[in-house]
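Continuing the series of single-chain predictions for the mutant panel. This is the parent chain; the variants come on the following pages.
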Amino acid sequence: MKKLILVTLLCLSISIFAQSNASMASVLQKIKSQSKIDSHDKVVYDLMDEFYQKNLQADNDEVTPELTHRIQKAVSDPNTKNIHLLYLLLMYQQHISQTVAEGKNSDPVFQIETMNLLESETKEVYGKLPAIIYIFKAEALDSGKKGRKQKLPLPMD
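Parent structure:
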């Protein structure tokens, strides 16, 4: 129950994260302090890798019901180790899904900061990165470039 409340608060805090990098890191530290860190437990790493293999590499780009079930099971299990990494991935994915569903542009600062945190935290725990992090980070950096281009004034002839 505690984790469910934490996940709900995490999802509701996305607007806070988008406003302040320090705030984002602070919330991550709180989540991390409640997570059990174990570099030998590959459950979360395997979920991230499966997300990449079955969804981004597959013809169908939707999350499979089986993977959704495994993610939900991991999130709801109080014994899941390295859960802070899964929370970061889900927070990023929710942001992207929500902006697409609402027809809005995503927040590149939020995307980049989230992926930087996920990258550093995953390296710290596992010493390596699953492919999904490289893909999402490239997507975030590309989004940041587009955002900067849109803010530039058009040259005068």
